[in-house]
């Protein structure tokens, strides 16, 4: 690679016809750390940092720390961060979401300063995909929309697709002032108005106008995979013999996970095991969730509820709210304070994940 491409002066130059230079400059710019970087309120132990990555196996001794770190996740219904930018530019990050905005050097006129915001919408998106198309990540807004930059900026949006051009057509859409959504570009096709880099966990887009953007995935084969994160929640204390296990299947994006953790915190829920990644194929087969290996004579599960089956369309198209299944367990006696079981999540003729649950239940003093 030409050394000139790696110098800071070449970042975000007007895009030439040579594709290799576009990619090189763009990739270098996404790693810039020397310029100002603005984060909303975050804690050093908060998960996740930066772009989302699939969960790796952690040692049992780190599990408690991992779960405790989730306590710092925000419970706000809208995630928004704001900062003042000048001629030097900088990077704006919404913590725990994988969403960021990079303003390059020179995009803002000298002697000027702009207040720029970045918002992740957690409520139901107004973008309703058609047919088997799915919303692959959060709806993201950057603004103010009336500002105009002289050099393209980079917007990073996480996604849950298993990237493969043979199985997916991925499109970037923008919301118009009239509230309608129009296609800006297809990831596989180059345009003069914007440029895109797709990595396994996020989409990095070069844009020249602020607004509201979202990624749509159009499956073009049954082998298209939507990556789901499977998580199990329960309460650490209860005042009856009944106990509920709540199993979530959500998009494998930091924003979707944060939303579930926030909702669970409001009802006293606790993550019981490290989440796992499920590869859900677009092959029309349903999802089965079951609770296994419940200790006999200590616990029982209500008849006919040990296994729940969810139709394919509900899993594939549930891009607005995470899929949620609850299992009602019961202790035979209050003296039972330990629960050990397995939660199996599998797609028929597809991928399977098993989560081992081991937790203590405390009695709530009346």
Structure description:
- One of its GO terms (molecular function) is netrin receptor activity.
- Residues 79-219 form the ZU5 domain.
- It comes from Calonectris borealis.
- This is UNC5D protein.
- InterPro entries: UNC5A-D (IPR037936), UPA (IPR033772), ZU5_dom (IPR000906).
- The protein is mainly beta and 366 residues long.
- The protein has 2 domains: 79-219, Chondroitinase Ac, Chain A, domain 3 (Sandwich); 225-360, Immunoglobulin-like (Sandwich), CATH 2.60.40.2660.
- It is built from 5 helices and 25 strands.
- It has helices at 3-6, 19-30, 60-68, 254-266, 312-316, and strands at 37-39, 78-85, 90-94, 99-103, 114-121, 134-135, 139-143, 148-158, 168-175, 181-186, 195-198, 202-209, 211-219, 225-234, 237-238, 242-251, 270-271, 276-281, 287-292, 299-301, 307-310, 323-331, 338-347, 352-360, 362-363.
- Strands 2, 5, 6, 7, 9, 10 and 13 form a 7-stranded antiparallel sheet that branches.
- A hairpin with a 5-residue loop joins strand 9 (168-175) and strand 10.
- It is elongated.
How many helices? The count is 5
How far is the first residue's CA from the last residue's CA?
A: 70 Å
CATH level 3 topology of the largest domain: Chondroitinase Ac, Chain A, domain 3
CATH class annotation of the largest domain: Mainly Beta
What's the pLDDT, averaged over the residues?
81
Chain oligomer state: single chain
Radius of gyration in whole Å, from Cα? 23 Å
Per CATH, the architecture of the largest domain is: Sandwich
β content, as a range? Answer: 35-45%
Main structural class? mainly beta
Number of domains: 2
